[in-house]
């Protein structure tokens, strides 16, 4: 009995050092609201949020912008919250949640899909970081040159992903307050320079944008990330903590960043937020926001990608982070990732249907209860899960009404539910059996 106990403790230590990539997060490592909220906020706070706010600044009044931002992030909160709560209750990442719906072998395909999309965006963001740093500080010498900045930026982002949730958590505790403070300073100076809040309220958009179009832009920009919310919230101590942290991340943090971008651009007339910071004499602030905002989001991209691959490759998450991080950094630094952005956007429409199938399976078919660990039985491949995912993705691509990512999500839920009710009881279309060792 003592040998068994020691062996179990040793296995738990190994899994913990591997960031619990392929097992449930133990209760002893679960986190409270503050930790989950800061990591979720760090994930959401990125340069794309500032640019989204900047984009709608030239097409919407202040009142309409607030409505669009709150509606868009409320949708992301509900969507990401459902996936995140499942991950929190079961203590596992998105790729492992997929084992029960897509099958043990089928979940490997899902893990690869998540990895391709997230690692692809990691490379794109590394390249964007390098080019932006070079543009902002053209006289900065070698360190701020495009390729050098992309290289050291990619290494920074890789470091916190290597240390897993602990690394993300530590960075978020520093970065989130810093970005918030610097953004408030920037907004205050911009509004003051524009003549005060009354002037901001009376701005008439030059190229009007509808609220619905802005909501589509806001939801679409983070639909893929919300689908992998459980990669973060699996460390939450319970579903309530997960929901609260997710809502804080989207409805508070993401809304704040988008509105900061809106106000800075609306007040200065500058469509590039970092350039606006420089114009106001906040060079250090522009540099810090650029580094921290990219860092807190892109390390999550690498983190999520590595978790997806850990579900299907016989290597530790740490090794996967190092290898994939180096490759993605090289690709991004050389500018090669720019050629893949269209394909990555297309693949991004395929991720929400994955979340739709998981949400349907967990909440509607399995009664919010999954089993994991030695002896757990899975099917190898569930044809109907992939059918739901594919039909959802096709609808997302083909239907040009509403929000593509939400259309694909809802359709995948409905199609998978109907197919499982028709064929699931007889196990037709559910191939093989796999027993976890």
Shape estimate: globular
For the residues shown, what is the average pLDDT? 86
Low-confidence stretches: 1-14
- Counting DSSP E segments of at least 2 residues, the number of strands comes to 4
Strand order of the largest sheet: 1-4
Order of helices and strands: HHHHHHHHHHHHHHHHHEEHHEE
Largest sheet: 2 strands, antiparallel
Number of helices: 19
Euclidean distance between termini CA atoms = 20 Å
Description:
With 437 residues, the chain is mainly α. The chain contains 19 helices and four strands. The chain has helices at residues 2-17, 33-44, 47-57, 62-90, 94-102, 106-136, 146-162, 164-194, 197-201, 211-227, 230-233, 239-268, 273-279, 283-310, 317-333, 341-349, 351-365, 383-398, 404-423, and strands at 377-378, 381-382, 430-431, 434-435. Residues 1-14 have low confidence and may be disordered.
């Amino acid at each position: 009995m003592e040998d068994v106990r020691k062996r179990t403790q040793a296995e738990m230590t190994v899994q913990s050092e591997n960031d619990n990539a392929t097992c449930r997060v133990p209760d002893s490592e679960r986190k409270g609201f503050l930790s989950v909220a800061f990591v979720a906020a760090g994930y959401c706070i990125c340069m794309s949020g500032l640019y989204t706010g900047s984009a709608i600044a030239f097409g919407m009044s202040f009142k309409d912008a607030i409505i669009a931002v709150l509606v868009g992030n409320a949708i992301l909160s509900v969507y990401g919250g459902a996936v995140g709560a499942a991950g929190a209750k079961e203590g596992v990442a998105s790729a492992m949640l997929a084992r029960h719906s897509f099958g043990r072998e089928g979940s490997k395909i899902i893990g690869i899909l998540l990895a391709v999309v997230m690692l692809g965006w990691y490379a794109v963001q590394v390249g964007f970081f390098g080019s932006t740093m070079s543009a902002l500080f053209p006289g900065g010498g070698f360190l701020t040159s495009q390729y050098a900045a992309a290289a050291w930026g990619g290494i920074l982002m890789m470091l916190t992903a290597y240390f897993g949730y602990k690394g993300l958590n530590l960075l978020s505790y520093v970065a989130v307050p810093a970005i918030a403070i610097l953004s408030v300073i920037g907004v205050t100076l911009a509004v003051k320079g524009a003549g005060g809040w009354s002037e901001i309220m009376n701005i008439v958009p030059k190229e009007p944008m509808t609220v619905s179009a802005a909501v589509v832009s806001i939801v679409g920009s983070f639909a893929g990330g919300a689908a992998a919310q459980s990669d973060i919230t699996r460390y939450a101590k319970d579903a309530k903590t997960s929901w609260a942290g997710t809502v804080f991340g989207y409805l508070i943090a993401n809304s704040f960043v988008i509105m900061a971008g809106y106000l800075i651009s609306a007040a200065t007339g500058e469509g590039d937020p970092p350039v606006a910071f420089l114009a106001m004499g906040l060079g250090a602030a522009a540099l810090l926001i650029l580094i921290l905002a990219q860092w807190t989001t892109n390390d999550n991209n690498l983190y999520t990608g590595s978790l997806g691959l850990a579900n299907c490759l016989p290597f530790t998450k740490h090794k996967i982070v190092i290898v994939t991080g180096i490759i993605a950094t090289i690709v991004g630094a050389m500018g090669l990732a720019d050629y893949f952005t269209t394909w990555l956007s297309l693949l991004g429409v395929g991720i929400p249907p994955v979340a739709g199938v998981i949400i349907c399976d967990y909440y509607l078919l399995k009664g919010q209860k999954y089993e994991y660990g030695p002896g757990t039985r899975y099917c190898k491949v569930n044809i109907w899960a992939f059918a739901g995912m594919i039909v959802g993705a096709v609808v997302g691509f083909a239907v040009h009404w509403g929000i593509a990512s939400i259309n694909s999500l809802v359709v995948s839920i409905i199609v998978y539910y109907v197919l499982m009710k028709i064929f699931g009881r007889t196990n037709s279309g559910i191939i093989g059996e796999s027993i976890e060792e």
